[in-house]
Amino acid sequence: MKGKKRGKKVMLIVVSGIAGLVAVVFAALLLISGVFTQQRYLQPWKPGYSAKMADPRLQLTAHGLLAASGHNMQPWRIKLDPNNDMVFSLYADSSRVSPAVDPDARQFMVSQGTFLEYIRIAGAELGYDAAIKLFPEGEYEESRLAGSMDSKPVARITLTKISAAAGPLYPYLFQPDTNRGGYKPDPLTDSQVQELKGINKDSDMTIEVFQDAGNMQKLADYANQAAKVEAGVDRVMEETAQIFRANEREKNKYRYGFSVEGQGTSGLMRHVLQGAVTLLPSLNKGQAASDQLIQSTEASVDKTPAYALIVSGDNSRTSQVRSGMLYSRLILTAHRLGLAMQPLSQAIEEYPEMNGIYSDIHRSYAPGGGTIQMLVRLGTPLNEVPLSMRRDVQELIISN
Length: 400
Ligand SMILES: Cc1cc2nc3c(=O)[nH]c(=O)nc-3n(C[C@H](O)[C@H](O)[C@H](O)COP(=O)(O)O)c2cc1C
Hints:
alpha+beta; 4-stranded antiparallel sheet; 400 residues; 8 strands; single chain; globular; binds flavin mononucleotide
């Protein structure tokens, strides 16, 4: 009897010891993650953020920077016209290219367009028509691309006062664009498909939506094969790892790139994971990162009822930017219809190891010599996702 009692006591001590240890580890992970740190990197998402600025050009820029960008690089710089307070220019920030994954800076230019469309939609809401002139000083000289990006604007934006009108897409600017989680199996309705395809008014571009079994299988295979190829290219994986922000301090410091929220992790679990990757960076690098890319692509492809493609007739810098504008409209309209999206860009990337898949997917889906500018999965999301980091608007301004 005595022995039984003692056994119970020892058991109790062991269990409470383990529970205490778990609690200490848990608390340590939260502290390492920065659980009490203010999330400055989320300020631009706050509804009152843009209204704090007196200059309408900055108000609109504060909306533009909420747009999607490849690798969340937010590669935007703006120059305010010193002589006309209704004019400003967008420059591509050449220091933010991702040469390994995007050697032709195509996704980078698509990301200029996403920003411009957000500006246009916010302008209408705030009472400004934003006339956007692309490459007002001509397209880039490709032989000296970085210098050209620094000296030639992507767009000149001229504002004209109009009466403010609540637009159907404006509220969706404040939602995360990218949902990497699972989607319901339900196909899109005919009217949803028509509405999404109808966004495009440009005869040189197409939006295609696929949800038949044959194309679903083919596109899923491309996405999975391309993820496997990318997972095996060390320099691309390393480039991505470089912009991973492990904890709240890093997120506040950089305010661009990736973080654990990107995989849909939120709440206390976010801090546990952040604490763990801060202590053990290898959890998110090398083989672990490669496995994660392959597995997450397989998981998301499995829970995908439809794909969409944006294809442009040519691959000029102008078409790339216009594709980005179209992508922003597509995603905002998808949100309005209760749908979510995730680009799956690997198969359409231009680095040498991807050449075979790039050619195959173009032969199948852009047979007339066009360029697939965006390949996305879409459907009704199973879960909402957290907001991702954004820089402060002041950081984008080029001083005159
Ligand atoms: C040109 C372009 C390519 C992208 N490619 C991918 C991709 O391959 N996989 C992915 O998960 N997200 C991709 N994205 C989404 C970005 O990673 C995302 O916009 C960014 O991390 C910010 O998050 P948010 O869109 O939720 O605000 C892409 C976005 C753009 C504009």
